[in-house]
Amino acid sequence: MESGFGTRRRTRLFDDLLALFLAEGFSQFTLDDIAAALHCSKSTLYTLAASKDDLVRRVTVHFFKRATAAVETTLSRNDDPRERVAAYLTAVGAELAVASEVFMADLNAFPPAREVYEANTAAAATRVRQLIEEGVDAGAFRAVNASFAGDLIATMMVRIQQRDVGKATGLSDAEAYTELATLLTNGLRT
C-alpha cells in the first residue's frame, strides 16, 4: 500500500506531465525528454507506467478524470433544469480549452489516447441525455425524445472529438462545445 506521500508525489507527477502535455503535446517527446522536463529520472517515470505509450494513456485518463470532476462540480452549483444542459456543455468546453492544438492533434492521432477521449465523449453524451430527461420531467424543456436528443448530441460530440467540426468551422473543441450548448439549450426551451 502506498503512503500518503507516495500517492501525493504520483499525483503531482501526473499533474506535471499533464501540464507539459497540454501545453506542448506528447508525440515529439521521448521518455528522456519527459524525465528532463520534469526533473526526474526515467526510473521514476517507469513507476507510473511501463512505457511511453502507457504513460500517455494514463496521463490522458488523468486529464479526463480531473475534467469530469470539475464539470460535475460546476454542474452541482446549478439547480435550474433549464440551465443545467448548457452549464454542463459549457463546462466541458472550458475543461478542453486548456489543451493546446498540438495536444488535441496528438490525442486524436494516438489510438490509446483517442480511445480514452472517445469513452469520455460517450459518457458525456449519456450525461447530457440524463440532463435533458430531467429538464423534460421538470417541465423546463418541451417534450422531446431524450434518446433522439442524446443521440444527436452524441453525434456532434463525436464529430468535435474527431476534429471534424474544427475542420469544417475553424472552431476549437471548447468553442464548439459552447456553440452546441447555446444551440441545444435554446432549442429545448418551452
Automatic annotation (TrEMBL):
It comes from the Bacteria. This is TetR family transcriptional regulator. Residues 30-49 bind DNA. Keywords: DNA-binding, Transcription, Transcription regulation. The keyword Cytoplasm does not apply. InterPro entries: Homeodomain-like_sf, HTH-type_TetR-like_transc_reg, HTH_TetR, KstR2_TetR_C, Tet_transcr_reg_TetR-rel_C_sf. The keyword Transcription regulation applies. GO terms for molecular function: DNA-binding transcription factor activity; transcription cis-regulatory region binding. Residues 7-67 form the HTH tetR-type domain.
